[in-house]
Specification:
With 434 residues, the chain is α/β, with parallel strands linked by helices. The chain has 13 helices and 28 strands. The radius of gyration is 21 Å and the shape is globular. The relative contact order is 0.15. The chain binds shikimate-3-phosphate (S3P). The site of shikimate-3-phosphate has 10 residues, from α5.
Length: 434
């Protein structure tokens, strides 16, 4: 067990400066996995510093992939090609749902059995969403009533034509990765468009993949047996980590923030439109494309914080950013309503319950619903003793809410921020003015 730490956040007057973010978590996981099954060496610059992405690297090592840390968060991975080695012990995914779900697609294509385990939070999270389609492709999987640990016996897979019942980029990537090992063409359809880093990364590693958008959803087709080749890449800054700084800036009319080298992938950037509608002024410069991913430099200025409704496709597109948007909602003029976000209940914590509990402790009025929250605006909050619920995004969201509260806020379990962003509290401190 890791020791618990607490952080005290004092109210701020303004947010000003520049933040350089660690590499995007979603892209880091996918690059590490694909680099492992590619031919040749990959150099992955600005690899995420988060513990989750370290879990992926640890699992790849257990599967016989050699890699080394170089300077400046660069990871050099020696690809083994599609055949990995049988692990000597269970694959430890730690707190990382992305590791377990996406890597299960790769181990399902291997000629050995492996066990995937996770920490207490991951052991409570639903895995039927990958078990069912991977089983249909021919893998043999046992679980604890749909939850980890998973025991996966891989082998000959056959292609599948599958419509995802829940909007999940992790499941989509899992099945496209499994499709690499399957005989025939795998077709994955998603009813609601989710982040497309799996599709973009597969192409970057030389895989041929067809894609089409249809209505609010999309489909991708991949042929089995394709070989991947290693890449040299620099991973753009994590947009979901940037969300905490953007929301902090949104709290103060006088704030000014620069975020260089930030991921601008359109399937992630809905956050920027929403924040602009909420009154943040955002401009993007030096936009460029690296291995199919858009990257740019953001300049933001605070304004009046307005309210908004997040529902339908937006809830899927903003799933990781809703906790921090909800945490600043009471300070907005009209408040925030979140609907269609039931998936938040099965993240690293029940994020709807966690946000509601912490907001209440800070004195906020709000209504908690099965699939979201309704938080009235124009409220004044006070500092309080809060809990992270062992969830990185809850710890960081409430550090932001604390900046405009009256009095100090103590966040217990603050160490969980390290799951995606170990230097978060220090970086936030550097841009707050008191
Ligand atoms: C992720 C997808 C999302 C998100 C998670 C990362 C990814 O999960 O919440 O933090 O990298 O594909 P779902 O696949 O469950 O929507």
């Amino acid at each position: 067990m890791k020791s618990e730490s607490q952080v005290v956040v004092r109210p701020a007057r303004n947010v000003r400066g520049s933040v350089q973010l660690p590499g995007d978590k979603s892209i880091s996981h996918r690059y590490a996995m694909l680099a492992g099954i590619a031919e040749g060496t990959s150099r992955l610059g600005n690899y995420s510093t988060g513990a989750d992405c370290a879990s992926t690297l640890g699992c790849m090592r257990s599967l016989g992939v050699e890699w080394e840390r170089k300077d400046g968060n660069t990871i050099e991975v020696k690809g083994r090609g599609l055949e990995l080695a049988a692990p000597g012990s269970a694959l430890d995914c730690g707190n990382s749902g992305s590791t377990m779900r996406m890597l299960s697609g790769i181990v399902a294509g291997q000629k050995f059995s492996s066990e995937m385990v996770g920490d207490e939070s991951l052991s409570r999270r639903p895995m039927e969403r990958v078990i069912k389609p991977l089983t249909a492709m021919g893998a043999k999987i046992t679980s604890q009533a749909g939850k980890p640990p998973l025991r996966i016996t891989g082998g000959e897979l056959k292609a599948i034509d599958y419509k995802l019942p829940v909007a999940s980029a992790q499941v989509k990537s899992c099945l496209l990765f499994a499709g690499l090992f399957a005989e025939g063409e795998t077709r994955i359809e998603e009813p609601m468009r989710t982040r497309d880093h799996g599709e973009v990364a597969l192409r970057a590693f030389g895989v041929k993949l067809e894609r089409r958008n249809s209505g609010q959803g999309s489909e991708a087709r991949i042929r089995g047996g394709q070989r991947l080749r290693g890449i040299e890449a620099s991973i753009p800054g994590d947009l979901s980590s940037a969300a905490f700084f953007l929301c902090a800036a949104a709290l103060f009319p006088g704030s000014q923030l620069a975020i260089p080298n930030l991921l601008m992938n359109p399937t992630r950037a809905r956050l920027l439109d929403i924040l602009m509608q909420m009154g943040l002024r955002i401009s993007v410069a030096q936009l460029e494309e690296i291995h199919g991913e858009m990257v740019g430099t953001l300049q933001v200025e605070g304004g009046t914080l307005k309210g908004i409704t997040i529902a339908g496709a937006d809830s899927a597109a903003l799933i990781d950013e809703i906790p921090v948007l909800a945490a600043i909602a009471p300070y907005s003029e009209q408040g925030i309503e979140v609907r269609d976000a039931k998936e938040l209940r099965v993240k690293e914590s029940d994020r709807i319950a966690a946000v509601a509990a912490n907001l209440r402790l800070m004195g906020a009025q709000m209504e908690e619903r099965e699939d979201g929250l309704r938080i009235p605006g124009g409220q004044t909050l006070h500092g309080a003793e809060l809990d992270s619920f062992g969830d990185h995004r809850i710890a960081m969201a409430f550090a932001v809410a604390a900046l405009r509260a009256n009095g100090e806020t103590m966040i217990r379990g603050a160490e969980s921020a390290a799951i995606s962003y170990p230097a978060f509290f220090q970086a936030l401190e550097e841009v707050t003015e008191r």
